[in-house]
Amino acid sequence: MPTELVRTLVSRGVEARPGGHNQQLTVMFTDLAGYTSISERLGDRVVPVLAEYLEAVSAAVLGRDGTIDKFIGDGVMAFWGAPVPNERHALDACAAALECQRLLASQRASADRCGGTALRMRIGINTGRMLVGNIGSNERLSYTVIGDPVNVASRLEPLGKLYGVDIIIGEETRTAAGDNIIVRRLDRVAVYGRIGGLTIYELLGVTECAGFVTPEWARTYEAGLAAYENRRWLEAIKLFEATAAIRRVVDRPSELLIERCRFCLADPPPSDWIPISMLESKG
User: Fold this and answer.
1) pLDDT category, 189, cuts 50, 70, 90?
2) Which of 2, 31, 90, 110 has the fewest Cβ atoms within 10 Å of its own Cβ atom?
3) Helix 216-229 and helix 233-247, axial crossing angle in degrees, nearest 10
4) Is the pLDDT of residue 15 over 60?
5) Is residue 13 included in any domain, yes or no?
6) CA nearest to 128, candidates 182, 81, 184, 95
7) Greater confidence, 60 or 212?
8) pLDDT for 213
9) Coil, strand, or helix at residue 53?
10) Under 8 Å between Cβ of 192 and 238
């Protein structure tokens, strides 16, 4: 258990015995992209590379009053709102995620200059009522969070690979953070283990950064998504193509939605069609 977490638990009188309570919190999962190939290529030399990444994520989390839950191989699990109460838990989690990506961008620039290993990461964030506390047995405890919102967050992280984006947040996080964040509404999906649809968003920025507003390409994409959901597939295709043209880079979400629109045009769905993408695997 991290030293700072132990100090906080002791200072708040949290006893080292099993127990917990339900609370509205925000949880984050991170993962290194392509870590398996990096590890195979570097062998033992991967240790300092991994340490650099974990240090960057830890600094970003702690800098925004987060709690580092655990390191899971090349991944990090962290949460906000406990053990110290924090009404801004969703916003702070988003800000920490953006800081993680900023630090990794700096690392890549340095690696390109010095011939090092450039790192990329994916992040999933979700908010909801979850059980927080000392989970385990009398012999071995872990101060952690469990529950459906945690499971959803762990499913959102690997979706970054499918959609080609760095940070995906759930609809509860988007609601909790409100106008303090800039997002692109990506899609509505049914993640593994859940029947109902979940709106997912790409996190782009926070409004506390002066001059940062929703970019034109994001608004164009969302207009295309609305057209797709309302069965105006030809219009949607044009808007998704315009999104890529405005960005002047490959926009993977637009490519995915264009494929869906063309499929719908070729084989129109029934009148009771619900535009939810079914994701069969865990990621």
Assistant:
1) very high
2) 110
3) 160
4) no
5) no
6) 81
7) 60
8) 83
9) helix
10) no
* Whether pLDDT at 283 is above 50: no
Both tokens of 76, joined, read 């990090």
Distance between start and end Cα atoms, the chain: 28
CB atoms within 10 A of CB 11: 10
- Single out the residue in 207, 241, 263 at which a domain terminates: 207
Q: Which two tokens stand for residue 103?
A: 């630090």
Helix (H, G, I), strand (E, B) or coil at 193: coil
DSSP secondary structure, 104-171, as one string: HHHHHHHHHHHT-----EEEEEEEEEEEEEEEE-SS-EEEEEESHHHHHHHHHHHHHHHHT-SEEEEH
Indicate if 39 and 178 belong to the same structural domain. yes
CA dist., res. 46 & res. 52, Å (int): 10
Residue whose structure tokens are 């899971």: 72
Instruction: Please choose, from the candidates 143, 175, 195, the residue with its C-alpha nearest in 3D space to the C-alpha of residue 185.
Output: 175
* Enclosing domain of residue 38: 21-207
Shared domain check, 166 and 260: no
How many residues appear in the chain? 283
In terms of DSSP H, where are the helices of the chain? 3-11, 35-42, 46-63, 89-114, 148-163, 171-177, 216-229, 233-247, 252-266
As given in the structure block, the two tokens for residue 59 are 């600094």
